[in-house]
Design goal:
The protein has about 650 residues and is an alpha+beta fold. The protein is built from 21 helices and 13 strands. Keywords: Membrane, Transmembrane, Transmembrane helix.
Length: about 650
């Protein structure tokens, strides 16, 4: 038996365990919550005859501005009150500030006694809360023309509904994957005759049956280990979770086949690990993850129009899509609320994409997903299946873009590499999600690792650092984000703005980076959905792209043995600390807690740093005895089964007589 380098394997395993454990613990300890507000049922209407208009006039149902300071004074109020609901007949212009002033004890309006709300697309109801007391009047300021339908006041406070989301996350399995693989490796090292003895029980028909036993045993162990996690997080541990873990056990077995044994080809194992895990996450993500960050909103817009309008979107489809986006909400009442929210986005999107034009999408980077949508429609797919298919195509398309960029970087073509990375980074930035920042940072780290050791000198490192800084800024300077028009901005609007005034565009980008970027709450003011769920599967893209890159490179690539192991480990730790620090900074600066915002740190943001670090260390030397295609199929089959099972579960949940 070949002697094992325990120092090298121990260092590698320690880094893997530390990263996986930190990601899992952070994610477990800071679970995101969603808070919704609803108006109390005892609200009473404020009659229109008591409305006093100033610098505005009523024409039909519309309130038209006639002066510089328009407002409506609601007089003749009686009794105690502490909440107010303003219901508009049509959505007010997005981005304006709706301000409600309430008087002090002497009946005077003071500048500091107010509540305000920012108007957003598809929203026609705005609620305000203020101190409980008797008010003789209230004053509402809306700096635009609008249609005011109804005003309600109540002495009860606004109702807050909080919900932990989601009920189950695939990254909760990270630590279990690593622990099981490490345990299997140790067991086989100290008991080398275990496999021959098990194989002898099955005779000549052993390989397939033995593999089934391995998968079943691994899945059972995983299910038992996951039970305390579900118990601590209050997750219902049902039979469908057990099936999920059994399938995950099959994935564990596929990874376990790639364990370190001794010889010459770490590149192939690295490729298969990355490609397999990346494809698993990409395949499962459209069905089990909260990822409006991959353009799901605009896919729904296109689907809504492509299927002929609102009449063709059934309740089942609407609630199913709501469940796919928010799988943690087992409560049907809450799902109905999200269904209404989704339908509101349908209505807004139909106005933008009436002609089904490529340029009607809010950002050109959504084109791969749009093509996937139209292909699914051509093949006659149902609404929900087409939606998932479009997201899947989009993720695969950007995986290939990232892969091409990494391969170009490996050959020294840095400018082409940056050109290849910009679309993906800006695509993620267009979702206003911190996850996009993490994705870009992970891709840049991978590119830098492919270039390490080839060139020396301060000028080279300075140029490399400058490119990385420019790429991070590129994430923040997507035109749709810079113009602060949110999801209503189309590609035509962006191109027209840049071409008409390039100097103004550059000035806006600089102001955005130096002023708006550091302002707390910036992300939450740019789009509706980013206040409900922030989750970008960037790690899956990076994994699959790195896997494809390594799999297509020559097999006789020499190992980088220069430098000490301690130095390599130090570089890996610094890299992970930098990416993790960026994630923490992003969370603290750009994700405010409360007011319906996501309040949890996404543990998966640290995962992209794990795999470039593994590539830097180049893994233990591993000798592969099976053809690469067999490993690829072994990785793909559990992913397909996993996705089919989750879709079947969704269909089963919404197949009752109510639908």
């Amino acid at each position: 038996m070949e002697r094992v380098n325990w120092r090298r394997q121990g260092t590698l395993l320690g880094i893997v365990l530390a990263l996986a454990l930190s990601a899992w613990l952070i994610n477990w300890a800071r679970t995101p919550e969603l808070t919704l507000q609803s108006f109390p049922e005892d609200g009473r209407a404020v009659p229109s005859r008591s409305w006093q208009l100033h610098d505005c006039q009523l024409k039909g149902d519309a309130v038209i501005r006639t002066g510089e300071e328009p407002y409506i004074k609601f007089g003749g109020l009686s009794g105690s009150m502490q909440s107010l609901l303003v219901r508009f007949g049509a959505e007010p212009p997005p981005g304006i500030e709706i301000v409600l002033y309430y008087p002090d004890d002497s009946g005077h309006i003071l500048p500091e006694r107010y509540e305000k709300s920012r108007a957003s697309a598809c929203k026609t109801e705005y609620m305000f809360s203020f101190p409980l007391k008797e008010y003789g009047f209230l004053r509402l300021e809306v700096p635009a023309d609008y249609v005011l339908s109804e005003v309600l006041v109540s002495e009860s406070p606004l109702k807050n509904q909080s919900h932990i989301m989601p009920s189950f996350r695939i990254q909760d399995l990270v630590i279990f994957f690593v622990l099981l693989l490490a345990a299997a490796q140790a067991l086989l090292y100290f008991w080398p005759k275990l496999l021959p003895r098990l194989a002898a029980l099955w005779g000549t028909r052993g390989p397939f049956c033995l593999g089934a036993v391995k998968a079943l045993g691994t899945g059972t162990a995983l299910a038992l280990l996951a039970w305390p996690v579900c118990h601590l997080r209050g997750i219902p541990y049902l039979w469908n979770h057990v099936c999920f873990f059994l399938l995950a056990g099959a994935v564990c077995c596929g990874l376990w086949l790639l364990r370190g044994q001794a010889a010459q080809r770490p590149q192939r194992v690295f490729a298969l690990l990355c490609l397999g895990l990346g494809l698993i996450f990409i395949t499962a993500a459209p069905l089990i993850a909260n990822i409006p960050g991959d353009g799901g909103i605009h896919y729904r817009h296109a689907l809504f129009t492509s299927y002929g309008g609102r009449a063709y979107i059934t309740r089942t489809d609407a609630y199913m899509i709501g469940l796919i986006d928010f799988p943690g909400y087992a409560n049907l009442e809450m799902n109905r609320e999200f269904g209404e929210l989704v339908e509101a986005h349908y209505t807004s999107g139909a106005r933008q994409i009436a002609e089904e034009s490529l340029l009607s999408f809010p950002f050109p980077a959504y084109l791969p997903g749009a093509l996937g949508l139209w292909l699914g429609r051509f093949l006659g797919m149902g609404f929900a299946w087409n939606y998932a298919f479009g997201r899947f195509v989009n993720l695969l398309a950007y995986t290939l873009i990232v892969c091409s960029a990494i391969k170009l970087a490996g050959r020294g073509k840095i400018l082409l590499c940056v050109a290849g990375l910009v679309p993906s980074a800006v695509f993620q930035a267009a979702t206003f999600s911190p996850g996009g920042i993490m994705m870009a940072a992970a891709m840049l780290s991978a590119v830098a690792l492919f270039r390490l050791g080839e060139r020396r000198g301060r000028a080279v490192w300075a140029a490399r650092a400058g490119l990385m800084l420019l790429m991070v800024l590129a994430v923040f300077t997507a035109p749709s984000a810079v113009l602060e028009s949110g999801l209503g901005l189309t590609a035509e609007d962006q191109l027209a703005y840049i071409m008409s005034s390039p100097l103004s565009f550059i000035k806006t980008m600089v102001k955005f980076a130096l002023r708006d970027l550091v302002r707390p709450g910036f992300l939450m003011e740019l789009g509706n959905f980013s206040a409900y769920a922030i989750n970008v599967p960037g790690s899956a893209l990076v994994l699959a792209a790195l896997g494809i890159t390594a799999l297509t490179e020559p097999e006789d690539e020499p190992l980088l043995d220069t430098g000490s192991l301690a130095g390599k480990a130090g570089v890996a730790v610094c890299l992970c600390a930098a990416v993790g620090g960026l994630a923490v900074w992003t969370y603290l600066r750009l994700s405010p807690v409360g007011e319906g915002a996501v309040s949890g740190f996404q543990g998966r943001w640290l995962l992209p740093a794990l795999f470039p670090a593994l590539y830097l260390l180049r893994l233990p030397k591993i000798k592969s005895t099976l053809h690469r295609g067999r490993y690829l199929y072994a990785m793909l089959c559990p992913a397909v089964l996993l996705s089919c099972m989750k879709m079947w579960l969704i269909l089963r949940c919404y197949s009752g007589p109510e639908f």
